[in-house]
Amino acid sequence: MPTTELVSIITVDGPSGSGKGTICRRLAQQMGWHLLDSGALYRLTALAAHHHGISTEDEESIKVVAAHLDVQFLTDHTNDIKIVLEGEEVTDAIRAEKIGTDASVVASMPGVRQALLQRQRDFAVKPGLIADGRDMGTVVFPEARLKVYLDASAEERATRRYKQLISKGVSASLEDILADIKSRDERDMNRTVSPLKPAPEAVILDTTQMTIEEVLEVVLDEAKHKGLR
Ligand code: C5P
User: Fold this and answer.
1) Reduced to 3 states, what is the DSSP secondary structure of residue 162?
2) How much is the pLDDT for 229?
């Protein structure tokens, strides 16, 4: 029996901008569980490849980079997570738009996904894990007790991202963000390995018209029904 079956896991999958990141952070805080931001691992692979001068087309070399990622996720006293790659803090650097696009390219490589699989499963430790990603419920943690799939229209997701960037003082174009979200959806949903899709038993929530608090309430209710809290 995989050790992950002994640990309570809630998986939260969905496309970019569906609110997964915020929801997962809040869930982990409220439940006192660990958090896996699996997208960060694909972003870190893309950034490490960039640091080593490796092209995103060189699948063989990127696979090696993914298998040997030297990364630490450090939690400080405010519970914020600091990400350190090869000794350098990259918490903000991995959020750049270009790294997100490169991450979705390297994430379509079967060897890269395989190289990161066990590293993700290792996050499943007691008292429990909130796993944020695209294939958490379908591939990485198929035995999870509760699986959630968050969706929202591409327009709403682009608007959320636009507002987030503007509030940080970063100039952005809504049109460019929407085009990027659509091409990332296309790549994530149509790749041959681990495409983005809800697990058959997932609770599917369209968050287009929902606030963070409303989504959180539904997920916490489901967790209660499953005896997870
Ligand atoms: O969630 P985030 O935007 O940080 O993820 C970056 C990219 O990594 C996604 O666009 C997706 O292509 C890929 N990803 C994935 N599987 C996961 C998490 C992220 O393929 N479990």
Assistant:
1) helix
2) 84
Coil, helix or strand at residue 12: strand
CA of 97 to the centre of ligand 1 (A): 12
Whether residue 221 is contained in a domain is answered as: no
| Distance in Å, CA 107 to ligand 1 centroid | 7
- pLDDT confidence tier of residue 5, bands split at 50, 70 and 90: low
183 vs 75, higher pLDDT: 183
The β-bridge partners of 71 are 85
* Per-residue confidence (pLDDT) for residue 220, from 0 to 100: 97
Q: What is the pLDDT of residues 74-112, one digit of tens each?
A: 987 777 889 999 999 999 999 998 999 999 999 999 999
From the CA of 179, how far away is ligand 1's center (Å)?
A: 17
Amino acid at 149: Y
Inter-residue contact 73 to 83 (CB < 8 Å): yes
**Does residue 222 fall inside a structural domain?**
no
d(CA 123, CA 117): 11
- The domain containing residue 69 runs over which residues? 3-211
- Is there a domain that residue 228 lies in? no
Q: What CATH number has the domain bearing residue 182?
A: 3.40.50.300
Distance (Å, rounded) from C-alpha 94 to C-alpha 85? 10
Asked if 100 and 184 touch (Cβ cutoff 8 Å), the reply is yes
Backbone torsions φ then ψ of 36, nearest 5 degrees: -115, 120
**Is there an atom of ligand 1 within 6 Å of 108 CB?**
no
- Give mean pLDDT, residues 174-178: 96
Q: How far is residue 128 CA from its own chain's centroid?
A: 17
Tally of domains in the chain: 1
